[in-house]
Amino acid sequence: MSSTLAKIMEIEAEMAQTQKNKATSHLAKLRQELITPKGEGFDVAKTGDARIGFVGFPSVGKSTLLSNLAGVYSEVAAYEFTTLTTVPGVIRYKGAKIQLLDLPGRGHQVIAVARTCNLILIVLDVLKPLGHKKIIENELEGFGIRLNSKPPNIGFKKKYKGSINLTATCPQSELDAETVKSILAEYKIHNADVTLRSDVTADDLIDVVEGNRVYIPCIYVLNKIDQISIEELDIIYKVPHCVPISDHHCWNFDDLLEKIWDYLKLVRIYTKPKGQLPDYTSPVVLPYSRTTVEDFCMKIHKNLIKEFKYALLWDHTLEDEDVIQIVKK
Which CATH architecture has domain 50-148+214-264? Predict the structure, then answer.
């Protein structure tokens, strides 16, 4: 175990007896060390319209699931973290090309790749899901990845003078002026405007101050459902963000793919050449947060925006399965 991880565990154990805000910010600084890359890492070229990272313990069926979905062979053996490299595969679903990454183990370089994903799938053995789930969640959290959550609704702006100016637009259950000042002092920040727009925690404030968190949707894939009862399966179906499957029998893959599509929030735009019918075979796929006509043009080619004259739309904004015709100068 690295010395940084050991220190983190010590501080977490002592937080009950320590001044909480100081311990929390010191913990955040140690976690920052974990996020900072060390040595030569590796990366995988990002291709397609979205990227999904598969994370999980050995023998939960992670590599088999990816192989079944994408036809990618991932070298498997019976020792810990058995996938030897980050193996990319690509599936085409509803017209979108989606890159699948089998992430080997949970080291620095692997987490660096996980931070670039649009969606994370945590693959769990349905017979022992909770223990593995908590361990993986804690490790991803420690590397600055926030699962199924949105950035804290906190305004934060450093300034040269004027001390700490705190504004709260709603009652706060944890943070007050002294706590905020104490946390910021740990980062040698003594002049800043802070606006709390919802009931937030010290951890939320630290996330905003550090500014390097990534917020990624996550699906928990509970594998090996062929080994449980129908009654147990009914309970699992009610758990948020979960999809039960059997990779051995290829059960419930349709539900998994639908859930993946919902969580990726991709938008398909069809092009209509002048004087022709729309091309419904090859959509231009955009993330839901970037659906302007300019985004559409840039996705096709960066030079298209220079030649752009006007666009014919069949709606005011670009939404999934809309049709657009671009007219050049």
Answer: 3-Layer(aba) Sandwich (3.40)
